[in-house]
Design brief:
The structure is a homodimer of 254-residue chains. Chain A is of the alpha+beta class. Helix content of chain A is 43%, strand content 16%. Chain A has nine helices and seven strands; from the N terminus they run ααβββββαββαααααα. In chain A, the strands form two sheets. In chain A, strands 2-6-4-5 form a four-stranded antiparallel sheet. In chain A, strands 1-7-3 form a three-stranded antiparallel sheet. In chain A, helix 6 packs across helix 8 and helix 6 crosses helix 9. The termini of chain A are far apart. The N terminus and C terminus of chain A are likely disordered. The interface between A and B is large, with 53 and 51 residues. The structure holds a DNA duplex (30 and 30 nucleotides).
Chain lengths: 254, 254
DNA sequence: CGCCTAATTGAATTCCCTCAAGATTCGTGG
DNA sequence: CCACGAATCTTGAGGGAATTCAATTAGGCG
């Protein structure tokens, strides 16, 4: 499934997403940004449902998502799939395996995806010379961990309605930020079940309740948000956990 | 609560724990290790139940745990406490707030603790010059995230018995590694409830079940492991998630 | 047009929660 | 060293949210 070599690589336009991401994470030196982009050695398309990274594979590369939505997951003993994180354009797929040299979970394409490939050793020496970029990637890891943490607190203390609503809000925000259509949230109810830890049956009933309440559109297959405000309210959603803190703490009067 | 200035600071002996930790995380240069230790500017004792770091505080420092057990937590709307992570000697208390400049959760002492304080700016410039240490701290963050991830997968897919057993196994391993007594696991059933997301009542019943099964000691107040093997088996415990991968992938024949 | 995946519905069950009251232990000060 | 209050642990009963199992319907795609 190799791409034909192109003079203008197909990810040229899409690289701006990576730049945006790194800027958000605190890399503000244009030279560094460009240098980082030049680490991308190739790209690969992955169709919906296929694995981007297999469980247990030895990582000689780092993979970044350039377009589409992916998820990090693991198959449990009982045959169910547990999704730990969703990934949007600009997110790296396998920070964890990069720093731990171990691939303990797999990454799959939730929609059709385009991914970029960086060489592990290239990146390593790059980070030696650009510790600021290293810090940025570290930040990205922590942000991902924060999302997981948010899920944990939701899953133990809140009702299914709130949890599903939360999950949908998160995707709504991340879709918007990635300039993707928010017309329909491109997740199946099975995806939602695997991510929330609820059964598919109950996810279905919850979705129906959200439709009944008017938060989601009725008579439609797929998940379409009808009333964004209402959904946010049901989820008691607060998007700050998705961001690097540019709040008060960032610039204290020191 | 300032310490009297001592010629031999009381954390002198305890510093070896930090060195061990950093070695595990891949820092093998003795000079770097020593330099890192010299960043510790002071220490502080915190009594069981007190906060080490308050929610929302502006971090000008990084705090490392030198002895005792601590936990990262957040108070939920409904008044319950959700514990996200336990910390053992050598662990930093607030990586997250360090890289995000934001303190979104609090840290409390589960047992009496001694913590060391590093200056934020000192550390920042140190990391600029020692990117390898930065990578090590990044690794530590990822390891912490891995533990959380393990909890997530357990909490959705497994029974209370397995979950509590898992939690206990984790502490057993971490106590052992920190050269602390494993006679009694120094957590209350309330701590376990806050960490697992189960109700105290149900934690209690689960503990009793574990006692009945012979995994925990009977007729004892506090939690004492009677049969380590059995507990591991009940939890289907696999400790690899607690480690930096020193497996096959770490030294490929390149 | 037919297959496969996804969505939907119903019924019975189970695990865990809440509420509420007691028993036990710990820590602290007298 | 003992006593008292506070925290922790224990026990019972009843209820509810989400699960499992099983079957059916609807859509998407070749």
């Amino acid at each position: 499934m190799e791409m034909a070599p192109l003079r203008e690589p197909m990810w040229a336009g899409v690289a701006t997403i990576l730049v945006m991401k790194l800027r958000e994470l605190g890399v503000d030196d244009d030279k560094e940004l460009r240098a980082f982009l030049s680490l991308i050695k190739g790209s690969r398309t992955v169709r919906r449902g296929e694995d981007i990274l297999k469980f247990g594979s030895l990582p000689k590369t780092l993979t970044v998502l350039l377009s589409g939505i992916a998820c990090r997951y693991r198959m449990m003993d009982n045959g169910r799939r547990q999704i730990f994180a969703f990934q949007y354009p600009g997110d790296a797929c396998d920070y964890h395996s990069y720093v731990l040299s171990r691939q303990d979970d797999a990454v799959a394409a939730v929609t059709d995806c385009l991914v970029g490939i960086l060489d592990r050793d290239d990146l390593e020496s790059f980070l030696q010379e650009h510790p600021r970029v290293g810090l940025a990637l570290w930040r990205a890891t922590v942000l991902e961990a924060r999302i997981l943490l948010e899920w944990v607190s939701h899953s133990t203390q809140h009702s299914a309605l709130e949890r599903i609503a939360s999950l949908l809000c998160e995707h709504l925000v991340r879709l918007t930020r990635s300039d993707m259509s928010t017309e329909v949230i491109p997740l199946t109810q099975i995806d939602l079940a695997d991510a929330s830890g609820l059964s598919v049956v109950h996810v279905n009933r919850t979705i129906q309740e959200l439709r009944e309440l008017g938060a989601l559109a009725k008579n439609i297959h797929g998940i379409k948000v009808e009333n964004r405000e209402m959904l946010m309210q049901i989820a008691k959603f607060d998007a700050t956990y998705l961001d690097v803190g540019k709040t008060a703490a960032a610039d204290p009067p020191l």
